[in-house]
């Protein structure tokens, strides 16, 4: 199984500042035949189901603010929030979909400093 | 607009079998490329992927739970059913179903959007 490890486990950032969350996979999730990274990012607010933010590691889902961006390739990925807003307080998860089982990271809790 | 809703018991006893139903709208599991997955989340913990069923009845399971899980679909009712046998208190969690998404002519990828609201299942005697 591919293990997804996020860092840090929790993060406190001031409003308007940049937040960076990392996700590392135990093996590459880059599929050579289409040169795509099989990785998604989700946001989960308290009492709500996860919401898709990004897929293919860097493709922003429609309607997601452009302050959210994804980057990385192979085994190392980053979710960046360029200017933190109060509504971004949530737990963020990465998930690979390279091959079953489609495992999630342990989550990163983002708070306001 | 795609929506999904989970239903089932809120309380099960240890050793019992859990049966959860995901009722969805806005897509059909007879359409090529479509799929529905199940993911669970123990209170205060991370997401755990459980199973996925595709339009062609192909199925994938979490290896650690495969012996206990069965996923089926009823296309006439727009429902996907997950059964989990031999329930234990550690299986206490919110269980989500979610729409599988993919892209391209080959419909590659297995990310999930949208998700149902989830249903909390407590395992206790």
Radius of gyration of chain A: 13 Å
Please give the largest β-sheet of chain B. Answer: 7 strands, mixed
Strands side by side in the biggest sheet of chain A: 2-12-11-6-7-8
What's the multimeric state? heterodimer
Q: What sequence of helices (H) and strands (E) makes up the elements of chain B?
A: EEEEEEEEEEE
Low-confidence stretches of chain A: none
Low-confidence stretches of chain B: none
What amount of the residues of chain B lies in strands? Answer: over 45%
Provide the structure class of chain B.
Answer: mainly beta
| Number of strand elements of chain A | 12
Strands, helices and their partners?
The complex is a heterodimer of chains A (113) and B (125).
Chain A (H helix, E strand, L loop, with lengths): L3 E4 L2 E4 L5 E7 L4 E2 L4 E2 L1 E6 L6 E5 L3 E2 L7 E6 L2 E6 L8 E7 L11 E5 L1
Parallel strand pairs in A: 2-12
Antiparallel strand pairs in A: 1-3, 3-10, 4-5, 6-7, 6-11, 7-8, 9-10, 11-12
Chain B lengths: L2 E5 L3 E2 L5 E8 L9 E7 L6 E7 L4 E3 L7 E6 L4 E6 L8 E11 L4 E8 L3 E5 L2
Parallel strand pairs in B: 2-11
Antiparallel strand pairs in B: 1-3, 3-8, 4-5, 4-9, 5-6, 7-8, 9-10, 9-11
Question: Which features characterize this protein?
Answer:
heterodimer, A: 113 residues, mainly beta, globular, B: 125 residues, seven-stranded mixed beta sheet, four-stranded antiparallel beta sheet, 54% strand
């Amino acid at each position: 199984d591919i293990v997804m490890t996020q860092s840090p486990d929790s993060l406190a950032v001031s409003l308007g500042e940049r937040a960076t969350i990392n996700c590392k996979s135990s093996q590459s999730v880059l599929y050579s035949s289409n040169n795509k990274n099989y990785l998604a990012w989700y946001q989960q607010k308290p009492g709500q189901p996860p919401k898709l933010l990004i897929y293919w590691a860097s493709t922003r889902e429609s309607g997601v603010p452009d302050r959210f961006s994804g980057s990385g390739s192979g085994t190392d990925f980053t979710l960046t929030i360029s200017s933190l807003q109060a509504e971004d307080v949530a737990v963020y998860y990465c998930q690979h979909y390279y091959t079953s089982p489609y495992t999630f990271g342990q989550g990163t809790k983002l708070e306001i400093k | 607009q795609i929506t999904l809703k989970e239903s089932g018991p809120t309380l099960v006893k240890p050793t019992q079998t859990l049966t959860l139903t995901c009722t969805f709208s806005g897509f059909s599991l007879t359409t090529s490329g479509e799929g529905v997955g199940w993911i669970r989340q123990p209170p205060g913990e991370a997401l755990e992927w459980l199973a996925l069923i595709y339009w062609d009845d192909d199925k994938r399971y979490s290896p650690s739970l495969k012996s206990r899980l069965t996923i089926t679909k009823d296309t006439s009712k727009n429902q996907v059913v997950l059964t989990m046998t031999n329930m234990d208190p550690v299986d206490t969690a919110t269980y989500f179903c979610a729409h599988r998404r993919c892209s391209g002519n080959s419909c590659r990828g297995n990310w999930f959007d949208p998700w149902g609201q989830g249903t909390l299942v407590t395992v206790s005697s």
